[in-house]
């Protein structure tokens, strides 16, 4: 059964390029309620832990370096069918393949610097949300 929460991060590229407000507007205009939100920065160890599932992949080192290079915005979002609907809103990982009207089509610059992260399952949404937010920070 699908849950009604998902997790997202506005990645360092989009934060650096000044897109926080526009991305949050797209999220709320997409019907999502923001139930947790913070500006933070991942340490290298944080990024390694968060992306441990990709540790054996060739892009892991670059991913860790990228995600720890500057601030991110972490958020837990709420909406019916949250994970699937948010994956639709963010668009394909490759912005050249992302649909018009998606966050990545509007703000991603490459496959590697693709503006936002979105959980890929209900289970991962819960794990990722708990990684970034204590229980008292989730509303």
Automatic annotation (TrEMBL):
Residues annotated as domain Nucleoside diphosphate kinase-like: 3-137
GO CC annotation, single: cytoplasm
Main location: cytoplasm
Keyword Nucleotidyltransferase: no
Cofactor or coenzyme needed: Mg(2+)
GO MF entries: ATP binding; metal ion binding; nucleoside diphosphate kinase activity
GO biological process: CTP biosynthetic process; GTP biosynthetic process; UTP biosynthetic process
EC number(s) reported in the record: 2.7.4.6
Listed HAMAP family: NDP_kinase
Family of this protein: Belongs to the NDK family.
Protein known as: Nucleoside diphosphate kinase
């Amino acid at each position: 059964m699908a849950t009604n929460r998902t997790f997202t991060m506005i990645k360092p590229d989009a934060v650096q390029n000044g897109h926080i407000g526009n991305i949050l507007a797209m999220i709320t205009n997409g019907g999502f309620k923001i139930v947790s939100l913070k500006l933070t920065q991942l340490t290298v160890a944080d990024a390694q832990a968060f992306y441990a599932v990709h540790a054996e992949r060739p892009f892991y080192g670059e991913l860790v370096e990228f995600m720890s290079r500057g601030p991110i915005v972490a958020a837990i979002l709420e909406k019916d069918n949250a994970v699937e609907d948010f994956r639709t809103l963010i668009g394909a990982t490759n912005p050249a393949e992302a649909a018009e009207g998606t966050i990545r089509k509007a703000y991603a610059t490459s496959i590697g610097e693709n503006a936002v992260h979105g959980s890929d399952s209900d289970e991962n949404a819960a794990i990722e949300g708990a990684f970034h937010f204590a229980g008292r920070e989730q509303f």
